[in-house]
Protein backbone atom coordinates (compact mmCIF):
# COMPACT_ATOMS: atom_id res chain seq x y z
CA UNK A 1 0.00 0.00 0.00
CA UNK A 2 1.47 3.34 -0.96
CA UNK A 3 1.40 6.47 1.15
CA UNK A 4 -1.34 8.00 -0.99
CA UNK A 5 -3.64 5.09 -0.21
CA UNK A 6 -2.66 5.26 3.44
CA UNK A 7 -3.46 8.94 3.74
CA UNK A 8 -6.72 8.43 1.95
CA UNK A 9 -7.62 5.64 4.36
CA UNK A 10 -6.81 7.99 7.23
CA UNK A 11 -9.19 10.58 5.77
CA UNK A 12 -11.86 7.92 5.34
CA UNK A 13 -11.35 6.62 8.86
CA UNK A 14 -11.69 10.02 10.49
CA UNK A 15 -14.73 10.83 8.38
CA UNK A 16 -16.24 7.46 9.33
CA UNK A 17 -15.78 8.31 13.02
CA UNK A 18 -17.61 11.58 12.49
CA UNK A 19 -20.41 9.79 10.69
CA UNK A 20 -20.61 7.14 13.41
CA UNK A 21 -20.79 9.90 16.01
CA UNK A 22 -23.76 11.58 14.37
CA UNK A 23 -25.40 8.34 13.37
CA UNK A 24 -25.82 9.62 9.81
CA UNK A 25 -24.88 7.68 6.70
CA UNK A 26 -23.60 10.46 4.48
CA UNK A 27 -20.60 10.25 2.14
CA UNK A 28 -17.30 9.89 3.92
CA UNK A 29 -15.68 12.84 2.11
CA UNK A 30 -17.94 15.75 1.30
CA UNK A 31 -17.03 17.48 -1.92
CA UNK A 32 -18.63 20.12 -4.07
CA UNK A 33 -18.31 20.73 -7.82
CA UNK A 34 -15.16 22.45 -9.05
CA UNK A 35 -15.72 25.61 -11.10
CA UNK A 36 -16.17 25.13 -14.86
CA UNK A 37 -13.99 28.14 -15.75
CA UNK A 38 -11.49 30.51 -14.21
CA UNK A 39 -13.33 33.65 -15.36
CA UNK A 40 -10.43 34.79 -17.47
CA UNK A 41 -11.51 38.22 -18.75
CA UNK A 42 -11.05 37.10 -22.37
CA UNK A 43 -11.66 33.34 -22.23
CA UNK A 44 -13.98 32.85 -19.21
CA UNK A 45 -14.54 29.11 -19.76
CA UNK A 46 -10.82 28.32 -20.14
CA UNK A 47 -9.38 26.39 -17.22
CA UNK A 48 -11.28 24.92 -14.30
CA UNK A 49 -11.46 25.42 -10.56
CA UNK A 50 -10.80 23.11 -7.63
CA UNK A 51 -7.59 21.40 -8.69
CA UNK A 52 -4.14 21.99 -10.16
CA UNK A 53 -2.54 19.52 -12.55
CA UNK A 54 0.92 18.20 -11.72
CA UNK A 55 1.49 15.94 -14.70
CA UNK A 56 -0.06 15.00 -18.02
CA UNK A 57 0.71 11.64 -19.58
CA UNK A 58 -0.58 11.62 -23.14
CA UNK A 59 -0.45 8.47 -25.27
CA UNK A 60 -1.56 9.30 -28.77
CA UNK A 61 -1.85 7.16 -31.84
CA UNK A 62 -2.26 9.09 -35.08
CA UNK A 63 -2.61 7.98 -38.65
CA UNK A 64 -2.06 10.78 -41.19
CA UNK A 65 -3.87 8.67 -43.80
CA UNK A 66 -7.28 8.86 -42.11
CA UNK A 67 -6.65 11.71 -39.66
CA UNK A 68 -7.94 9.70 -36.70
CA UNK A 69 -6.42 10.33 -33.29
CA UNK A 70 -6.67 7.73 -30.54
CA UNK A 71 -5.76 9.14 -27.18
CA UNK A 72 -5.35 8.19 -23.58
CA UNK A 73 -4.70 11.04 -21.17
CA UNK A 74 -3.60 10.32 -17.61
CA UNK A 75 -3.87 13.51 -15.61
CA UNK A 76 -2.34 13.66 -12.16
CA UNK A 77 -3.74 16.57 -10.19
CA UNK A 78 -4.05 17.87 -6.65
CA UNK A 79 -7.49 18.77 -5.34
CA UNK A 80 -7.63 22.26 -3.85
CA UNK A 81 -11.02 21.64 -2.28
CA UNK A 82 -13.23 18.66 -1.61
CA UNK A 83 -14.55 17.70 -5.05
CA UNK A 84 -17.78 15.90 -5.87
CA UNK A 85 -17.12 16.64 -9.53
CA UNK A 86 -14.63 18.58 -11.59
CA UNK A 87 -14.29 19.79 -15.16
CA UNK A 88 -11.77 19.33 -17.93
CA UNK A 89 -11.72 21.47 -21.06
CA UNK A 90 -12.18 19.23 -24.09
CA UNK A 91 -13.69 19.94 -27.48
CA UNK A 92 -14.87 17.49 -30.10
CA UNK A 93 -13.66 13.86 -30.23
CA UNK A 94 -15.48 10.99 -28.58
CA UNK A 95 -14.87 10.18 -24.95
CA UNK A 96 -14.92 6.42 -24.53
CA UNK A 97 -14.06 6.02 -20.87
CA UNK A 98 -13.18 8.08 -17.84
CA UNK A 99 -11.70 6.68 -14.64
CA UNK A 100 -10.61 8.43 -11.46
CA UNK A 101 -8.21 6.65 -9.15
CA UNK A 102 -8.72 3.53 -11.23
CA UNK A 103 -12.50 3.44 -10.78
CA UNK A 104 -14.89 4.17 -13.63
CA UNK A 105 -16.33 7.68 -13.36
CA UNK A 106 -19.50 9.20 -14.76
CA UNK A 107 -19.06 12.07 -17.12
CA UNK A 108 -21.05 14.42 -19.29
CA UNK A 109 -20.25 17.05 -21.85
CA UNK A 110 -21.62 20.50 -22.62
CA UNK A 111 -19.80 22.67 -25.15
CA UNK A 112 -16.11 22.53 -24.34
CA UNK A 113 -16.65 21.31 -20.78
CA UNK A 114 -16.18 17.67 -19.80
CA UNK A 115 -17.59 17.19 -16.30
CA UNK A 116 -16.26 14.18 -14.40
CA UNK A 117 -18.03 12.74 -11.38
CA UNK A 118 -15.76 10.31 -9.53
CA UNK A 119 -17.29 7.33 -7.75
CA UNK A 120 -15.96 8.75 -4.47
CA UNK A 121 -15.61 12.41 -3.65
CA UNK A 122 -12.04 13.69 -3.58
CA UNK A 123 -10.63 15.23 -0.43
CA UNK A 124 -8.98 18.63 -0.36
CA UNK A 125 -5.24 18.12 -0.83
CA UNK A 126 -5.65 14.70 -2.36
CA UNK A 127 -3.51 13.86 -5.38
CA UNK A 128 -5.66 11.96 -7.85
CA UNK A 129 -5.29 10.36 -11.27
CA UNK A 130 -7.86 10.80 -14.00
CA UNK A 131 -7.74 8.67 -17.11
CA UNK A 132 -9.61 9.70 -20.24
CA UNK A 133 -9.73 7.44 -23.29
CA UNK A 134 -10.89 9.14 -26.46
CA UNK A 135 -10.77 9.05 -30.24
CA UNK A 136 -11.88 10.73 -33.42
CA UNK A 137 -10.85 13.31 -35.97
CA UNK A 138 -9.91 16.47 -34.08
CA UNK A 139 -11.68 19.61 -35.23
CA UNK A 140 -9.45 22.69 -35.31
CA UNK A 141 -10.58 25.67 -33.23
CA UNK A 142 -11.46 29.01 -34.80
CA UNK A 143 -9.78 31.80 -32.89
CA UNK A 144 -11.75 35.02 -32.27
CA UNK A 145 -9.09 36.77 -34.40
CA UNK A 146 -9.95 34.55 -37.37
CA UNK A 147 -6.87 32.32 -37.24
CA UNK A 148 -6.96 28.56 -36.73
CA UNK A 149 -5.47 26.65 -33.83
CA UNK A 150 -5.63 23.23 -32.21
CA UNK A 151 -4.89 19.94 -33.93
CA UNK A 152 -4.51 20.83 -37.60
CA UNK A 153 -4.33 18.22 -40.31
CA UNK A 154 -1.67 18.96 -42.93
CA UNK A 155 -0.78 17.40 -46.22
CA UNK A 156 0.95 14.19 -45.07
CA UNK A 157 0.87 14.95 -41.36
CA UNK A 158 -0.51 17.17 -38.63
CA UNK A 159 0.49 19.83 -36.14
CA UNK A 160 -0.94 20.99 -32.82
CA UNK A 161 -0.66 24.62 -31.71
CA UNK A 162 -2.63 25.82 -28.72
CA UNK A 163 -2.57 29.58 -28.20
CA UNK A 164 -4.82 30.50 -26.53
CA UNK A 165 -7.30 27.62 -26.19
CA UNK A 166 -6.54 25.23 -29.07
CA UNK A 167 -5.07 22.43 -26.96
CA UNK A 168 -8.55 21.38 -25.86
CA UNK A 169 -9.09 20.01 -29.40
CA UNK A 170 -6.63 17.17 -28.84
CA UNK A 171 -6.36 16.45 -25.13
CA UNK A 172 -8.57 17.06 -22.11
CA UNK A 173 -7.03 19.32 -19.50
CA UNK A 174 -7.02 22.41 -17.38
CA UNK A 175 -6.44 24.64 -20.37
CA UNK A 176 -5.43 27.96 -18.86
CA UNK A 177 -1.85 29.24 -18.53
CA UNK A 178 -2.24 29.62 -14.76
CA UNK A 179 -2.07 25.83 -14.39
CA UNK A 180 1.31 24.60 -15.63
CA UNK A 181 2.40 20.96 -15.39
CA UNK A 182 5.08 18.48 -16.46
CA UNK A 183 4.35 16.37 -19.56
CA UNK A 184 5.13 13.01 -21.04
CA UNK A 185 3.81 12.75 -24.59
CA UNK A 186 4.03 9.49 -26.53
CA UNK A 187 3.21 9.80 -30.22
CA UNK A 188 2.66 6.59 -32.16
CA UNK A 189 2.68 7.01 -35.93
CA UNK A 190 3.06 4.80 -39.00
CA UNK A 191 6.63 3.88 -39.87
CA UNK A 192 8.28 6.46 -42.08
CA UNK A 193 6.83 9.41 -40.15
CA UNK A 194 8.61 11.49 -37.56
CA UNK A 195 6.65 12.66 -34.52
CA UNK A 196 7.91 15.60 -32.54
CA UNK A 197 6.78 17.18 -29.29
CA UNK A 198 8.30 19.29 -26.51
CA UNK A 199 11.34 18.53 -24.37
CA UNK A 200 13.68 15.56 -24.72
CA UNK A 201 13.15 12.49 -26.88
CA UNK A 202 13.40 9.68 -24.36
CA UNK A 203 12.95 6.82 -26.77
CA UNK A 204 12.02 5.97 -30.30
CA UNK A 205 10.66 2.46 -30.47
CA UNK A 206 9.49 0.16 -33.22
CA UNK A 207 6.14 -1.09 -31.92
CA UNK A 208 6.33 -4.26 -34.04
CA UNK A 209 3.04 -3.51 -35.80
CA UNK A 210 4.36 -1.15 -38.46
CA UNK A 211 4.48 1.92 -36.25
CA UNK A 212 7.01 3.97 -34.33
CA UNK A 213 6.50 5.32 -30.81
CA UNK A 214 8.22 8.59 -29.94
CA UNK A 215 8.34 9.30 -26.18
CA UNK A 216 8.85 12.97 -25.31
CA UNK A 217 9.52 14.27 -21.82
CA UNK A 218 9.13 17.78 -20.42
CA UNK A 219 10.22 17.91 -16.77
CA UNK A 220 9.77 21.67 -16.36
CA UNK A 221 6.25 23.13 -16.06
CA UNK A 222 4.48 23.76 -19.37
CA UNK A 223 1.36 25.85 -19.96
CA UNK A 224 -0.98 23.69 -22.03
CA UNK A 225 -1.14 26.20 -24.93
CA UNK A 226 2.59 25.57 -25.46
CA UNK A 227 2.30 21.81 -25.89
CA UNK A 228 2.80 20.69 -29.46
CA UNK A 229 2.75 17.57 -31.57
CA UNK A 230 3.98 17.52 -35.14
CA UNK A 231 3.73 14.53 -37.44
CA UNK A 232 5.38 14.50 -40.83
CA UNK A 233 8.29 13.36 -42.94
CA UNK A 234 10.74 15.75 -41.30
CA UNK A 235 14.51 15.86 -41.59
CA UNK A 236 15.84 15.75 -38.05
CA UNK A 237 19.06 17.37 -36.93
CA UNK A 238 20.51 17.29 -33.44
CA UNK A 239 23.09 19.49 -31.83
CA UNK A 240 24.04 21.23 -28.63
CA UNK A 241 24.51 24.83 -27.56
CA UNK A 242 27.99 25.82 -26.28
CA UNK A 243 26.62 25.53 -22.71
CA UNK A 244 25.29 22.06 -23.38
CA UNK A 245 21.56 22.45 -24.07
CA UNK A 246 20.59 19.63 -26.48
CA UNK A 247 18.91 20.84 -29.66
CA UNK A 248 16.54 18.76 -31.78
CA UNK A 249 15.08 20.30 -34.89
CA UNK A 250 12.69 18.84 -37.43
CA UNK A 251 12.37 20.48 -40.82
CA UNK A 252 9.86 19.66 -43.55
CA UNK A 253 11.43 18.44 -46.78
CA UNK A 254 11.96 21.34 -49.14
CA UNK A 255 12.42 23.87 -46.31
CA UNK A 256 15.93 22.80 -45.27
CA UNK A 257 18.03 25.08 -47.44
CA UNK A 258 15.97 28.16 -46.68
CA UNK A 259 15.83 27.35 -42.95
CA UNK A 260 19.54 26.76 -42.60
CA UNK A 261 20.75 30.38 -42.17
CA UNK A 262 18.39 31.19 -39.27
CA UNK A 263 18.33 27.75 -37.61
CA UNK A 264 22.11 27.64 -37.94
CA UNK A 265 22.26 30.51 -35.45
CA UNK A 266 19.94 28.96 -32.86
CA UNK A 267 22.78 27.79 -30.60
CA UNK A 268 24.42 31.22 -30.72
CA UNK A 269 21.08 32.93 -30.09
CA UNK A 270 20.45 30.71 -27.06
CA UNK A 271 23.81 31.75 -25.59
CA UNK A 272 23.02 35.38 -26.31
CA UNK A 273 19.64 34.99 -24.61
CA UNK A 274 21.30 33.46 -21.56
CA UNK A 275 23.71 36.40 -21.37
CA UNK A 276 20.86 38.91 -21.73
CA UNK A 277 18.07 37.25 -19.72
CA UNK A 278 19.75 34.68 -17.47
CA UNK A 279 20.17 30.91 -17.86
CA UNK A 280 18.11 29.24 -20.59
CA UNK A 281 15.11 27.93 -18.61
CA UNK A 282 14.67 24.47 -20.17
CA UNK A 283 16.59 21.25 -20.67
CA UNK A 284 16.07 21.13 -24.43
CA UNK A 285 15.73 23.34 -27.48
CA UNK A 286 15.19 23.22 -31.21
CA UNK A 287 12.58 24.04 -33.82
CA UNK A 288 9.84 22.52 -35.96
CA UNK A 289 9.61 23.85 -39.49
CA UNK A 290 6.39 22.86 -41.30
CA UNK A 291 5.74 23.08 -45.01
CA UNK A 292 5.33 26.75 -45.99
CA UNK A 293 1.80 28.02 -45.52
CA UNK A 294 0.77 25.35 -42.98
CA UNK A 295 -0.31 28.01 -40.45
CA UNK A 296 -0.95 31.76 -40.34
CA UNK A 297 1.65 32.29 -37.62
CA UNK A 298 4.61 30.84 -35.74
CA UNK A 299 4.22 29.72 -32.13
CA UNK A 300 6.71 29.52 -29.28
CA UNK A 301 5.75 25.95 -28.31
CA UNK A 302 7.89 25.09 -25.32
CA UNK A 303 11.52 24.26 -26.09
CA UNK A 304 10.64 23.71 -29.76
CA UNK A 305 8.80 26.53 -31.57
CA UNK A 306 6.71 25.79 -34.64
CA UNK A 307 7.29 27.75 -37.86
CA UNK A 308 5.06 27.68 -40.95
CA UNK A 309 7.89 27.42 -43.47
CA UNK A 310 11.51 28.53 -43.27
CA UNK A 311 11.81 31.24 -40.61
CA UNK A 312 13.77 34.47 -40.71
CA UNK A 313 16.45 35.11 -38.14
CA UNK A 314 14.20 37.64 -36.35
CA UNK A 315 11.38 35.14 -36.07
CA UNK A 316 13.65 32.44 -34.63
CA UNK A 317 14.97 34.99 -32.13
CA UNK A 318 11.43 36.08 -31.23
CA UNK A 319 10.21 32.56 -30.49
CA UNK A 320 13.40 31.76 -28.62
CA UNK A 321 12.94 34.85 -26.42
CA UNK A 322 9.49 33.52 -25.48
CA UNK A 323 11.21 30.61 -23.75
CA UNK A 324 12.13 33.11 -21.01
CA UNK A 325 9.15 35.43 -21.46
CA UNK A 326 5.88 33.57 -21.85
CA UNK A 327 7.03 30.01 -21.35
CA UNK A 328 9.12 30.14 -18.18
CA UNK A 329 7.43 33.33 -16.92
CA UNK A 330 3.87 32.72 -18.10
CA UNK A 331 0.96 35.13 -18.12
CA UNK A 332 -1.41 34.88 -15.16
CA UNK A 333 -4.28 35.50 -17.57
CA UNK A 334 -4.78 36.25 -21.26
CA UNK A 335 -4.98 39.94 -20.45
CA UNK A 336 -1.27 39.78 -19.67
CA UNK A 337 -0.21 38.78 -23.18
CA UNK A 338 2.00 41.86 -23.55
CA UNK A 339 4.28 40.25 -20.93
CA UNK A 340 4.88 37.63 -23.65
CA UNK A 341 4.79 39.64 -26.84
CA UNK A 342 6.17 42.98 -25.70
CA UNK A 343 9.18 41.19 -24.21
CA UNK A 344 9.79 38.90 -27.21
CA UNK A 345 9.53 41.89 -29.54
CA UNK A 346 11.92 43.88 -27.39
CA UNK A 347 14.31 40.92 -27.52
CA UNK A 348 14.35 41.33 -31.31
CA UNK A 349 15.24 44.99 -30.82
CA UNK A 350 18.06 44.04 -28.46
CA UNK A 351 19.40 41.33 -30.78
CA UNK A 352 19.54 43.85 -33.64
CA UNK A 353 21.19 46.42 -31.38
CA UNK A 354 23.82 43.89 -30.30
CA UNK A 355 24.49 42.78 -33.89
CA UNK A 356 25.02 45.97 -35.84
CA UNK A 357 21.36 46.77 -36.56
CA UNK A 358 19.35 49.77 -35.40
CA UNK A 359 19.48 50.55 -31.69
CA UNK A 360 16.33 50.12 -29.61
CA UNK A 361 16.26 53.91 -29.27
CA UNK A 362 16.26 54.29 -33.06
CA UNK A 363 13.52 51.68 -33.27
CA UNK A 364 11.44 53.45 -30.62
CA UNK A 365 11.82 56.75 -32.49
CA UNK A 366 10.97 55.07 -35.78
CA UNK A 367 7.63 53.90 -34.35
CA UNK A 368 6.85 57.42 -33.16
CA UNK A 369 7.72 58.76 -36.61
CA UNK A 370 6.10 55.90 -38.56
CA UNK A 371 9.43 55.26 -40.29
CA UNK A 372 9.12 51.86 -41.96
CA UNK A 373 12.72 51.94 -43.18
CA UNK A 374 13.80 51.06 -39.60
CA UNK A 375 10.90 48.73 -38.73
CA UNK A 376 8.23 47.63 -41.20
CA UNK A 377 5.60 47.67 -38.41
CA UNK A 378 6.25 51.35 -37.61
CA UNK A 379 3.23 52.49 -39.60
CA UNK A 380 0.93 49.73 -38.30
CA UNK A 381 -1.84 50.41 -35.77
CA UNK A 382 0.65 49.81 -32.94
CA UNK A 383 -0.96 52.61 -30.88
CA UNK A 384 -4.58 51.50 -31.41
CA UNK A 385 -5.12 50.36 -27.81
CA UNK A 386 -3.36 49.97 -24.49
CA UNK A 387 -1.22 46.81 -24.45
CA UNK A 388 -2.39 45.86 -20.95
CA UNK A 389 -6.05 45.98 -21.95
CA UNK A 390 -6.80 44.67 -25.42
CA UNK A 391 -10.42 45.56 -26.29
CA UNK A 392 -11.48 41.95 -26.81
CA UNK A 393 -10.28 38.35 -27.17
CA UNK A 394 -9.66 38.97 -30.88
CA UNK A 395 -7.02 41.56 -29.93
CA UNK A 396 -4.74 39.65 -27.57
CA UNK A 397 -2.26 39.12 -30.42
CA UNK A 398 -2.82 42.59 -31.90
CA UNK A 399 -0.06 44.97 -32.94
CA UNK A 400 -0.14 47.14 -29.79
CA UNK A 401 0.47 44.05 -27.62
CA UNK A 402 3.73 43.48 -29.52
CA UNK A 403 5.04 46.89 -30.52
CA UNK A 404 3.60 49.25 -27.95
CA UNK A 405 4.41 46.50 -25.42
CA UNK A 406 8.06 46.69 -26.51
CA UNK A 407 7.88 50.48 -26.27
CA UNK A 408 6.74 50.19 -22.63
CA UNK A 409 9.98 48.35 -21.94
CA UNK A 410 12.00 50.93 -23.80
CA UNK A 411 10.36 53.71 -21.77
CA UNK A 412 11.51 51.93 -18.59
CA UNK A 413 15.01 51.73 -20.05
CA UNK A 414 14.96 55.46 -20.80
CA UNK A 415 14.03 56.16 -17.17
CA UNK A 416 16.30 53.59 -15.52
CA UNK A 417 19.37 53.58 -17.76
CA UNK A 418 20.94 50.61 -19.54
CA UNK A 419 22.52 48.85 -16.56
CA UNK A 420 19.45 48.93 -14.33
CA UNK A 421 17.22 47.96 -17.26
CA UNK A 422 19.37 44.92 -18.13
CA UNK A 423 19.31 43.89 -14.48
CA UNK A 424 15.52 44.27 -14.50
CA UNK A 425 15.07 41.87 -17.45
CA UNK A 426 17.33 39.28 -15.83
CA UNK A 427 15.77 39.79 -12.43
CA UNK A 428 12.24 39.39 -13.77
CA UNK A 429 13.11 36.14 -15.57
CA UNK A 430 14.68 34.83 -12.35
CA UNK A 431 11.98 36.09 -9.97
CA UNK A 432 9.13 34.34 -11.82
CA UNK A 433 11.09 31.45 -13.38
CA UNK A 434 8.78 28.51 -14.20
CA UNK A 435 5.85 30.44 -12.75
CA UNK A 436 3.18 32.96 -13.69
CA UNK A 437 2.88 36.70 -13.43
CA UNK A 438 0.33 39.44 -14.02
CA UNK A 439 0.87 42.95 -15.33
CA UNK A 440 0.51 44.29 -11.77
CA UNK A 441 3.21 41.86 -10.62
CA UNK A 442 5.53 43.26 -13.27
CA UNK A 443 4.90 46.95 -12.63
CA UNK A 444 5.40 46.43 -8.88
CA UNK A 445 8.61 44.48 -9.51
CA UNK A 446 9.96 47.09 -11.94
CA UNK A 447 9.42 49.90 -9.44
CA UNK A 448 10.94 47.93 -6.59
CA UNK A 449 13.94 46.83 -8.66
CA UNK A 450 14.71 50.25 -10.16
CA UNK A 451 13.62 52.31 -7.17
CA UNK A 452 11.76 54.60 -9.59
CA UNK A 453 8.22 55.87 -9.64
CA UNK A 454 7.16 54.71 -13.11
CA UNK A 455 3.49 55.66 -12.83
CA UNK A 456 3.71 57.99 -15.81
CA UNK A 457 5.09 55.17 -18.01
CA UNK A 458 2.30 52.81 -16.99
CA UNK A 459 -0.42 55.46 -17.33
CA UNK A 460 0.59 56.67 -20.78
CA UNK A 461 2.11 53.59 -22.43
CA UNK A 462 0.66 50.54 -20.75
CA UNK A 463 -2.87 51.52 -19.73
CA UNK A 464 -3.50 54.81 -21.55
CA UNK A 465 -6.49 54.89 -23.93
CA UNK A 466 -4.96 57.69 -25.99
CA UNK A 467 -2.15 57.21 -28.45
CA UNK A 468 1.17 58.12 -26.86
CA UNK A 469 2.28 59.61 -30.17
ZN1 LIG B 1 5.47 36.26 -29.89
UniProtKB/TrEMBL annotation:
Residues 54-226 form the Aminopeptidase N-like N-terminal domain. InterPro entries: Aminopeptidase_N-like_N, Aminopeptidase_N-like_N_sf, Peptidase_M1, Peptidase_M1_aminopeptidases, Peptidase_M1_dom, Peptidase_M4/M1_CTD_sf. GO terms for biological process: proteolysis. GO terms for molecular function: alanyl aminopeptidase activity; metallopeptidase activity; zinc ion binding. Residues 1-26 form the signal peptide. The keyword Amino-acid biosynthesis does not apply. This is Aminopeptidase N.
